[in-house]
Model the fold of this input.
Amino acid sequence: MFSWLRKQEKAVPEVIRTVTEGLKELYKRKLLPVEELYHFHDFHSPALEDADFDSKPMVLVMGQYSTGKTTFIRYLLEQDVPGSRVGPEPTTDTFTAIMHGEAERLVPGNAVVVDPKKPFRKLHPFGNAFLNRWVPAGAGPRAPRWDPQAVPELV
Done:
């Protein structure tokens, strides 16, 4: 009786430290159960993993041969990319994912696809023909790192 006289307890707001953390939590709590209920992962794409949320932004550079793609990337990184060559004829016959790493090195695509910390696990269904031509490269510690503070200067 007289329920309107009772004091309303205020709900304590949920604290989210980063946007990434909030998106990850929202996906796992709200969207993932719906995807599982309707078997979305069976016919479309696998569920998102933590690496999909935690990975750095990616940029795709593509074009015809000898148009300066590798030269452009070398200019941005201020260093050579492992496994890249520059010449007048087609020199690159692989797909390269350049990542920041502890050392400059080439990693087989098959090895990176099974690493749960990398956002490339979804490439596995493309098969060995693709994975043999996909070469992730560690750009080494000298490579510039992603700096969100620098983005407004680039715009």
Q: What stands out?
A: The chain has a mean pLDDT of 77. The chain has two domains: 13-48, 58-145.
